[in-house]
Design goal:
With about 90 residues, this protein is of the alpha+beta class. The protein starts with about 25 loop residues before the first helix and ends in a 6-residue tail after the last strand. The chain has a four-stranded mixed beta sheet, with no helix packed on it. Helices cover about 20% and strands about 20% of the residues.
Length: about 90
């Protein structure tokens, strides 16, 4: 099973950003929410046991995670089964 990268839908070129009266169009709100989720998930850290798993909504091949148990960043290489590599390519 392959997992594609994060899907971020850009608003149409003619979609207005309505900043007056505190309103933002739905297209732009969806974009901002997707970017916020992407930024949050791309900057996660924690012990090995807290690495993202299949139960999470947002995962993608190449997803970074700073493993505090190992003291280094790891990257999701495969999702079925979960395989994480360090920067040198070794399975961790």
């Amino acid at each position: 099973m392959a997992v594609a990268g994060p899907k971020v839908q850009l608003p149409s070129p003619n979609a207005p950003i309505t900043l007056d009266k505190g309103g933002v169009t739905f297209e732009w709100m969806a974009l901002f929410a997707a970017l916020q989720s992407l930024a949050f998930n791309a900057s996660r850290s924690g012990p090995t046991a807290d690495r993202p798993t299949a139960s999470m909504r947002v995962r993608w091949i190449g997803m970074p995670f700073y493993d505090t148990t190992l003291g280094l960043p790891v990257f999701l290489h495969s999702v079925d089964p979960d395989v994480w590599h360090n920067g040198a390519g070794a399975v961790v």
